[in-house]
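Give me the fold.
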Amino acid sequence: MRKTTIMPWTKEWVISYNQEEKLLSEILREELTAIFHIGSTSVPVIGYAKPIIDILVVVKEIEKIDQYNEALRKAGYKPKGENGIAGRRYFSKGKDKRTHHVHIFQVGHENIKDHLDFKAYLMANSEDAKAYGDVKLKLAKQFPESHHNYQVGKQKFVNELMKKARGFGRNN
């Protein structure tokens, strides 16, 4: 069972993202249209996050991404296919001690806007962002040995934030 580790925000996460962005841009250059740092490590005002860098990659044709699995394996990534989200390709790096999650979607997929609106909302609404960080800390202390219970506990709060973020995205 995976443990849940929450750490205070650090600029090292931005450095790690920048390094990985260069690597992924080189590997996926033929299909790449955009790449973004998402998730809690990309929003300093949240204050706390699991030390895993989430990366959103937007590509021309999602079906072609499977051709890059071997190159991504050589870079330390484990291909996991759609992993529960239709139209996505998902990769993790770091085996049991994960360091990066890569979410790849084709241009126009609705999850791209959701991820970017969620980040933009939190960047613009520091009180909600800080509350999100507090929820993460509380749940990590409550469920240090159960990542599943941590995720389940966090989901209701995330769903409420997502509603706000979608409204925010429509107005911006």
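The domain at 7-171 is CATH 3.30.460.10 (Beta Polymerase; domain 2).
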